[in-house]
Amino acid sequence: MRRSTQNRSARAVGRIFRLTSLLVALALPALSMAVEELRIITSYQPSMTHPMLEAFQQRYPDIHVRVLNKNTHAAVDEMLAGNERRFDLFWASAPEAFVVLEHAGLLVDLGHGPHADFAWSAVGWTWRSPHGPTGQFPVPQDWNDLLDPAFAQSIAMSHPMRSGTMHSLLETILQDRGWQAGWAWVLELTGQLNTISARSFGVLEGVVRGDFTIGLTIDFLALTRSTDGLVFRYGRPVIMIPARIAALRGSQHNKAAHAFMDFVLSEDGQRILLRPDVRRIPVNPDVRAELAESLNPEVRAALNFSWSRYDPELAARRYWEVNQIFEAFVARDLLLRRDLWRRLRALSQAPAAERTRIRRLLTWMPLTEHQARSTSQNRETLVEWSERSHTILRDAEALIRLLEQP
Q1: pTM for the full model?
Q2: Can you list the domains of the chain with their CATH numbers?
Q3: CA of 147: how far to CAs of 144, 191, 380, 393, in Å?
Q4: Which among 280, 314, 317 is positioned nearest to 299, based on CA atoms?
Q5: Phi, psi dihedrals of residue 131, rounded to the nearest 5°
Q6: What is d(CA 274, CA 269) in angstroms, rounded to the nearest whole number?
Q7: Of 247, 265, 280, 322, which alpha carbon lies 20 to 30 A from 49's?
Q8: Do the Cβ atoms of 121 and 241 come closer than 8 Å?
Q9: What value does the mean pLDDT take over residues 287-315?
Q10: The pLDDT of residue 32 is above 60
């Protein structure tokens, strides 16, 4: 009797266990469907993304967001290679990167066009107080002031192949001055450089540590570091650059991607850009009006004129060429070119005509824009351009050596 009761109890427990297992198995798909994933690839650091993501998660707790930080150039390369990791959104400051992806057919319109502008920025330079009018050096007022010999080996920038911010800065110079004059300025700036950093954030860290005096950067990166003593000045003329967000082809979570884009562009999302730890300029004019007293007057004026707007289409058409020219003529020969500028400036007593001849060599870009864009985008082209740069520098060095002889 006792054994029969035990058997019945065991069978009852077994039925309850199987029923419970069945209910759990039936519930799991519903639970997994309730939580949707959103994958974002971005060039922004957590200090920029976290406030927006935190507010978004509060509104959409059932969407699990995963974020990968990657520099703009590398992110574009990954998307062009097929987006194998199935990112849903691309979020960055360099607008030409979005044009490149759009032309490749890799962006999806979820109701905001192939990409959406969500903020404005502009480039310039930063330094650490108490340097400045009452400190150790006069603050550069415009781009040409950065070429003052007083700043030789005191300026840092990042590489445009690793920093979308710096590519935009380089394009700002080229678009404002034209191809030849723009490159001439960049080649002379090389004589002022202390280093070329791998990332934009490395420039700011170096200025904070005192490794160099001036860092070329974009406004929001420096403005959010004011507690570290960083001061920022816009380059003149101020040229406004749109920051963007876009949905990617290959996405598996379009609904979540659409929700996030809507939130970033909403008044609540735009107002987050005003936070002191974000310091972006909203595209929404009503929200931007809340910055009326603190917004730089030159920025306010630039936002009202189309001539002061950055041209992402132009930047995208020569995206590869500009990056590779910088690599071939600036980055690879940084030490030699910088030393030649130092030696030329030391020849202040040499004949003016000879110094002018050498200066022309050091600021000469032997490639027109048409020639650069007509070449094949491969390693052989980069090697050829590097050889042309080095030939010019050898010629300049030979002339300098003659003038250095007693």
Answers
A1: 0.85
A2: 35-121+241-295 (3.40.190.10), 123-237+313-404 (3.40.190.10)
A3: 5, 8, 32, 19
A4: 280
A5: -60, 155
A6: 10
A7: 322
A8: yes
A9: 85
A10: no
